[in-house]
Amino acid sequence: MDTTLTADLARERLHTLTVIDVRTPGEYAGGHIPTALNIPLDSLDRALPALREAAGRGGLLLVCASGARSRNACALLAREGVTAATLEGGTAAWSATGGELHRPAQARAGWAMDRQVRLTAGSLVLLGLLLGLLVHPAFQLFSAGIAAGLVYSALSNTCALAALLGKLPWNRPGRTGLETTLAALRTPASP
To answer: Nearest Cα to 112, choosing from 62, 64, 73?
Structure first.
């Protein structure tokens, strides 16, 4: 299988793929590919046996908002001997090319991780600048540290702040939610 699928190619092959959305549960609830199961990136290690089993039955397609997290997930699975593809451009590309996104009626849509990162980083920078003006100029170094972290994040295509925010309760699946997803993943789809 290709390591990257365009939205059009993924749509053509969707009936043969097991789609795994690696975003947080809040992001998933905000809109996901209709057949996608949600296993957040930081839960992949727990899901590895079920993912290996699903990959043995057919192709795995990993999805996130833009493609960055799903590429990281593909690399992680590849190190464990599990072959998976990523959706080029993520759900943004899927939607932009006319793909339907499922939004559960009962689910409260959460903010996308990049939005959470921007809010947190911007708030921390403003806090450092404000404390630098009101308390002591050394607090401006805090803002400089946040800015340096953002630059490193862009250059390395990683984000420690996103990883930290992903551990907050609203970004984590409940134990029963992940167990239900893993049970569905272990059950072969009927033809």
So the answer is: 64
Paired strand residues for 60: 18
Closest CA to 77 of 53, 102, 108, 106: 53
C-beta contacts of 33-37 below 8 A and 24+ residues apart:
33/63, 33/87, 33/91, 33/94, 33/99, 33/100, 33/101, 33/102, 34/100, 34/101, 34/102, 36/63, 36/102, 37/181, 37/184, 37/185
CA distance 119 to 137: 23
Q: Which residues pair with 38 in a beta bridge?
A: 21
For the segment 118-164, what is each residue's pLDDT rounded down to a tens digit? 899 999 999 999 999 999 999 999 999 999 998 988 888 778 888 78
d(CA 125, CA 165): 17
- Kindly report the backbone phi and psi dihedral angles of residue 13, in degrees, each rounded to the nearest multiple of 5, phi listed first: -95, 0
Determine the Cα angle at 3 with ends 182 and 44, to 5°. Answer: 25
pLDDT at 36: 93
Low-confidence ranges of the chain (pLDDT < 70): 1-2, 105-110, 172-176, 188-191
Helix axes 175-186, 44-57, angle to 10 degrees: 20
Task: Please enumerate in sequence order all residues whose Cβ is within 8 A of that of 81, keeping only pairs 6 or more positions apart, or say none.
Answer: 52
